[in-house]
Amino acid sequence: MAAEIVYYNPELLTTPTHIVCPKCHSPTNTNVEVKNTNKTHFFAFLMCLVGCCLCAWLPYTINDCRAVRHYCQKCNRYVGSYKNNYRFC
Ligand SMILES: [Zn+2]
Questions:
Q1: For the LITAF domain, which residue ranges apply (predicted)?
Q2: Residue 8 has what DSSP assignment?
Q3: What is the pLDDT of residue 17?
């Protein structure tokens, strides 16, 4: 399995963003793919520990707790990830 390089682009948001694709150099919008990460599960677990079991689903709804990957709409290649500051976690 090839190691996947994740690089963060401060221009990228949690929603489709207009960029110049670094791969095919076309101005385009991105497609986003939002994934739960180990950190998402960790924060959910943390919520349970502090007695907020009812809030444990929260990290799954907050994009700042999740990996947001952007793909070029033209060439479909991975172009970067949203810079996650964990401001809500
Ligand atoms: Zn492209």
A1: 1-84
A2: E
A3: 94
Q: At residue 50, does pLDDT exceed 70?
A: yes
Q: State the Cα–Cα distance between residues 29 and 4, nearest whole angstrom.
A: 22
Distance 11 CA to ligand 1 centre (A): 16
CA of residue 57 to ligand 1 center, whole Å: 35
8, 9, 13, 15: CA torsion to nearest 10: -80
Q: What residue spans define the domains of the chain?
A: 18-82
- Per-residue pLDDT averaged across 61-71, rounded? 82
Which whole number is the average pLDDT over 41-49? 88
Q: Is there a contact between 16 and 29 (Cβ–Cβ < 8 Å)?
A: yes
Which tens digit of pLDDT belongs to each residue from 15-40?
A: 999 999 999 999 999 999 988 888 88
